[in-house]
Structure formats: C-alpha cells, structure tokens
Amino acid sequence: METKTKQDYLLSSVKNSLRLLRSFSLDEPEKKVTDLASSLGLGKSTVSRLLATLASEGFVLKDPETHKYRLGLSILNLNTVVTSNLEINRESLPVLQRIVQNIGEAAHVAALEGMDVVYLNRVECKHPVQILSHVGRRNPIHCTSSGKVIMAYQKQDVIDQLLESPLQKYTVNTISDSDDLRTSLHTIKEQGYAISIEELLEGVASVAAPIRDYTGKVVYAISVTGPVHRMNPHNITIINKLKSAAKEISGNLGYWRG
Fold first, then answer.
1. I need a surface site. Which of 2, 43, 119, 174 has the fewest CB within 10 A?
2. Residues 6+ positions from 207 with CB-CB distance below 8 Å
3. 152-164 residue pLDDT tens
C-alpha cells in the first residue's frame, strides 16, 4: 500500500510538471509562481518545488530581477530532436518553400490534437504579419482553415465528439453553431479545401487542403495565411496550387490513389 502511494505521488508530480511546462506560451512566455499556482490549481509550495526541480535540469529559468520563470534551453534541445525526426516536416519543407515563393504568403503544416490544431512546420514569407500560427502553436479547430479541413475528413463519431463542446466565438465571423459547422464541413469535404476569413483573428485569412498518410487517412493539412488586404483565399489559383501541394506531400508520405 505504501509503495503504491509513493508511486501515485511520483506520477502526479510528473504530470504536474508537464502541465506546468505546457502552461508557457508565446503570449505568456514568463510567469510568476503565484500565476502558475492559480492557473494549474496547485499550491504555491508544490509549484515552487516543481520549478526548482525543472530549473536544476535546465527546463526553466528564473529571472533574478522579476522573479518570473520562463522555459529553458533544455526544451529547445528536445524540440530540435522531435522536429528533425518528424517525417511530415522533412517531406513538406521543400513544398512549403515553393508555395511561399509562388503565392507570397506564409505556409504551414498542421495536425489535429484534441480540440486543437497544432502547427508542426512553417515557412515565413518576405512580408510577414502578426498571425497566430507559429510552430507549436495550438489553435481551435472550428475557426481555422487547417482545423476545419482535417475535421471534415474524420469519421462521423469523431466529428460528433469534437462538436460536443461549445464553440467559442473569437470574431463576428466565427462559426459558433454546431449545425452550421456540420454543414460547412460537408461542403469542405466535397470541394477538397477549407477557407477561414477573419474567423480567429480580424484581418487574417487562410486556405487549407488535406494531406493524407500512406493509408489514405487525412492526418495533416497544408495552409497559407495572410492579411485580407493582401490575400484572397477564394482565388482559384491559390486553391489549386495548395491542393496540388497537398497531393505532392501525401505522395511523399506514401499515399498513392489507385
């Protein structure tokens, strides 16, 4: 009984340490102990102990003046190992670079994770703008072109599960009604691409196409994102180039339509 209790304690500490690390983001790169304790629902002493352990291994750093913590270089080392070994990153990079050259806007590859879409790869354009799509960024699936195009190709039970939770409204253009989104997903699957115009962030538009793995399952999406005054996501040339790029990456991953 005592061994089990100790094991449970250790597992809980590991889980809380991972939750702590994931609480940092580009929007909030630095946090105080009190902020972390409040957001994670943990005691200050527990958070302080976890931070001390993580700091000893270089996963977090403490600013001696502000007493705020930020992620350390050990995280960067792990990120390098992960990204360099992701097949999708290796196979998509040259295609993304070509898309940026041809279209002139930032290009990305993203995957579905829970109720979010996570950006795995990105190539910036010559005239970047402030958009919420950096590598590692998690965005909601219902108001991003990447998220919608991946969700459109999932099985019905998966779509039902994804639509169980309320759909948060980020702008006046966000689809927050589940029935309206279902209709939109049906159209997306029929046409083979998805568009998002100021659904997540005002002034930003994107278009995405589905990427299939060797089994034919849609597991990723390729997208281009830019300001609405510079990019028209309804432009058929952009759409066709993106669909062609998605087909090429799918082929690189082993998918060939018979």
1. 2
2. 145, 193, 194, 195, 196, 223, 224, 233, 238, 239, 242
3. 999 998 899 888 8
